[in-house]
Amino acid sequence: MLLPDAVTFSRNVFLPITNVCRNQCRYCGFRRDPTHPEANLMAAEEVAKILDAGKRAGCTEALFTFGEMPEEHSEFREWIEDIGYSSVIDYLIDLCEIAIDYGLLPHSNPGVMDSRDIRRLKPLNASMGLMLETTAAIPAHEGSAGKIPSERIRTIENAGKLRVPFTTGLLIGIGESKEDRVQSLSTIADLHTRYRHIQEVIIQPFAPKPGTGMADSPEPSHQEMMETVSLAREILPDDVAIQVPPNLTGFYDLIRCGASDLGGISPYTIDWINPEAKWPQISELAGKLGGIRLRERLPIYPQYINERWYERGSRLADLIEHYADKEEYRDET
Question: Is residue 92 within 8 Å of 17, Cβ to Cβ?
Answer without folding.
Answer: yes
